[in-house]
Amino acid sequence: MKRLKRHQKYNNTKVTIDEILFDSKKEAHMYGTLKRWVKEGKIKDFQLKPLFELIPRMELMKKGKLRVNRPCTYTPDFMFFDIDQNRTRVLDAKGHRDSTYLVKKKLFDWIHKDKLYIEETL
Predict the structure, then answer these.
(1) Which domain holds residue 95?
(2) What is the chain's pLDDT, residue by residue, as a tens digit (122 residues)?
(3) Whole-number Å distance between alpha carbons of 47 and 90
(4) Backbone conformation region of residue 64, classed left if phi is above 0, alpha if psi is from -120 to 50, else beta
(5) Is 118 exposed, middle or buried (0-12, 13-18, 19+ CB in 10 A)?
(6) Does residue 44 fall inside a structural domain?
(7) What are the two backbone dihedrals, phi and then psi, of residue 106, each rounded to the nearest 5 degrees?
(8) What is the number of structural domains in the chain?
(9) Within-domain flag for 27
(10) 2 inside domain
């Protein structure tokens, strides 16, 4: 049986670089730029898809039964330390801001307040 090619939700094109599959051309381009910055010594501690826990796993009793809620997490595209700016930066390539992202961004901002914030490339 022949499979039809899946249509991407936001018409993005997946791209593979260095055996890493990126969700869009924009994200792949950002990766190339950041990889160059690492070589040039502009940034360090470069991370791809770091995981942030926004709401921890919870156990609740509902109607006499134990219910387990999975943690709520946020995974931006990149995180690194910018040597010139002397701070950690969190980058996310966005073609579209959906409602889930907006809620997670608010939680992220509330948790990390003045320490970290999400920089979006639209």
Answers:
(1) 15-121
(2) 444 455 566 667 888 999 999 988 999 999 999 999 999 999 999 999 999 999 999 999 888 999 999 999 999 999 999 999 999 999 999 888 889 999 999 999 999 988 998 998 86
(3) 10
(4) left
(5) buried
(6) yes
(7) -65, -45
(8) 1
(9) yes
(10) no
